[in-house]
Structure formats: structure tokens, C-alpha cells
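Hi U.,

Before I forget, here's the chain from the pilot set. I'm dumping it here mostly so it's searchable later in email.
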Amino acid sequence: MPTQCGAMSRGRVMRLTRLDDCGLVVPGPAATLVTSGMVQVVATPVYQDQEDISVTNANGDLCVDDQSDPALRWLTLQMDFCNIDPDAINIISGAPLVVDDAAPTPNDVGFRWDTATLGTANFALEIWSGIKGQGCTEGGFENFGYWLYPYVVQAQLNEYTVANAALTLSLTARTSAGSGWGVGPYDVVRDVLTPFAPGPLVSPITATQHGHFQFTNAPLPTAACGAVVLPAP
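Structure:
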């Protein structure tokens, strides 16, 4: 079976999607957001300590030497933003929004640190990365790297500095097992045969899977300020 490879550089866009407490997508108003204002996303796997078993015999020789397989607990995700979007902070952390007095629909102009809600939000995170020196695929489509973290929880706002310098805002969260993402609510891949129709993932995310990567030539979502409606399926 042919294998697709590619050298990747740069992050193109990020998409956030609201989830409920069961890891299921929550369609409706302000349910999804696409931004190009990310500086970086650092993913760090966290493993359970491996158990060593060793026994020596009466002669002092090693008789039993065994170690358990590594067990992934979660991925810690550090997300750094150069463009502060209050809706993004709300989706990630649960921080309540600050609105103005515009009528009939107020504008989201900020957020608050609130002990009652901080870290209570659940969301899915998708990132698209560029591929260096690629040619277009059959059909003339550009390829991207697609990274999905289908169930992210317990976000925290990190240290930041207001100074005579660029301000970046950093949040840290972790992935969780038990995702209800399935194949997802978006078209993120294309059929490999004409007419190359966009569609969702080919196979669903399972309950034990914390992340997903693949090459794709489906079109990038368009970045914009603020969250938008995600229609019900």
C-alpha cells in the first residue's frame, strides 16, 4: 500500500469546537471558531510510570527481567496566541465573556477570570500545518498536515506579561479519553477518486484515542474573529 510522506513547516489555522461533558459536539450559536492568531501549540505526551519486575536467583544472576508497556495517560497541550479573541478563550477555558451595550446584539469585547467556571469547558482542537516543497495532488489541490485532538479538558490560563513588547496569551489543557467526536462535524478530507468530494474522517475516533494526524487536501477553513454557528447535523 503506498504511503504518503511530507516535510511540514508552519501552522496555518486552528479550529476550536465546543463539546459537552460527554465529549460530544454542541451545535448552535458561537459553537465553533477558526483563528490564524496562534503562535504555537506544544503537545507533550504524559505516560504512566512503567512497572519494572526483576528477580535474581540464588547465584545472583538475573532470573526475571520484565517491564510493563508504556501507557499513555493524556497529551498536555500548550496553546500560545498572538491575537486575543475573547470567544476563543471562552471556548477553551470557560472564562465568561464581557460584552458591551450594543443593541440589539452586544459585542464580545473581553473575558473574566472566574473561579466558578475556569477549567470547566470541553472542546476539540484541530490544527492545519503546511507542507514544504509539495506539488499539487491529482485534481490540483494543496496538501496539508491535519492534527486533531478530539476531546480537550481542564484548560488553565498561564503567566503573561504586559510590557514594551508583543503580548502573547498562553493556555494549557489536556486531552481526555472517551471522545464522542466520531468522524466529526466537518469536511476535512477528500475522496481519492473523481469528483474528489470533501467529507468527514473516513473512520471514527475511538474512545481510547487522544489524537489523530493525517495528510489531507481538503480546503482550509477560513479564519475570522469570533465564534460562529455550527449547524446541527
